[in-house]
Amino acid sequence: MTDRAFDDIPGTLLFDGKRSRLGYHLNMFCMSLLHADNRAAFKHDEDAYLARFPLLTAEQRAAIRGRRWNEMLQLGGNVYYTAKLAATDGLPVASMSAAMAGLPPEDYVRMMVGGGRSPAWTGR
Amino acid sequence: MSAAHIFAGIGASHVPAIGAALDLGKASEPYWAPLFAGFAPTREWIAREKPDALILVYNDHASAFSLEVIPTFALGCAAEFAPADEGWGPRKVPVVKGDPALAWHLAEALILDEFDMTIVNKMDVDHGLTVPLSLLFGQVDAWPCTVVPLAVNVIQYPPPTGKRCYALGKAIRRAVASFPEARKIAIVGTGGLSHQLQGPRAGLINRDWDARFLDGLTADPEALSRIPHLDYVREAGSEGIEMVMWLIMRGALEEQVDELYRFYHVPASSTAVGHIVLVNRAGSP
User: Fold this and answer.
1) What is the pLDDT of residue A2?
2) Chain A environment of B86 (Cβ under 8 Å)
3) Domain annotation for chain B: domains and CATH numbers
4) In sequence order, what DSSP letters do the residues of chain A get, joined into one string?
5) ipTM value > 0.90
6) Which residues in chain B have Cβ-Cβ distances shorter than 8 Å to A95?
7) Which domains does chain A carry?
8) Residue contacts between A and B (CB atoms, under 8 Å)
9) Which pTM does this prediction carry?
């Protein structure tokens, strides 16, 4: 992931083929949470449930357990998949986005109501 | 004019939180009221126009499809489509009635016209499809018309180009013209406008970009169709690339259109909500 034309866009990961390959099992774990019985099993014992996905890497497993949303994306996650993990936690998508932006949810909402993040933002 | 014809194109965002606000009775709260008020003129207009069918261009958000199968263009040909469980139970909205005769005609005509559609006979539909229906028709016991879902991949990079989407729209117009049954059809392009849900840049909104995009739908859609993918991602956010789906809607209209209505509102959750109604210019075929 070093030589593509989109790598310079600040604070943004594009879900291209390389990331999709890297994150296949992470995303398919998230996909499994669309089923109510799987959500219940995951909530009951997260490690036992994650053991059903033997091809997850140790890094992916730890990022999931820690709900480290940006790290999940760096490890091949896609936001529409990780949103299913957030939903399982009862977390609105906007709160997940806020966490990735490094803002408390109420500050994120305030930024959005104020017109959102400027396109001139460079990540400082 | 043939028996079947597309009389109007509608663009509308499809933010899931809009559906949740409506379903949970929050539509009159100060945060949401301006948004729903902005769609009221269109609800009145479409109630008068009474289309028989919608062709609804949207994207599935890992609900019916996952990374197992990623169709670029998938046409729903089933008799009905159930609202999907997206992790908190399906939305309590009516089952969507399909239009198999029209959908199969489109599939055959488009494939023979060299647009290689994926044919789908079983598919649940998520907020990408049901939120625009709620915005157009409100809370109803049954949707007032049939729907042909056209699901476009905009999640796995690369989505189809704007140029390809615009050309597909034109092919849809040709295909509808050869359908032998009577149908008054509106085509709906959904998604966008500028937004980014992910990463440290989450929350990006670009009003100027959005305004130029809405202007261009009437003024110069050919120019819009030449915007490269990365310009959307760079300028309108990683999820802003959904806007290519509006170009399918625009391509399916006549070259000359009139803008009947426009509405723009920030925010719904993380998104700039855009809405436009376009009709073929009086006197166009």
Assistant:
1) 46
2) 34, 84, 87
3) 4-280 (3.40.830.10)
4) --SSTTTTSTT-----HHHHHHTHHHHHHHHHTTSHHHHHHHHH-HHHHHTT-TTS-HHHHHHHHTT-HHHHHHTT--HHHHHHHHHHTT--HHHHHHHHHT--HHHHHHHHHTT-B-TT----
5) yes
6) none
7) 17-88 (1.10.700.10)
8) 150
9) 0.97
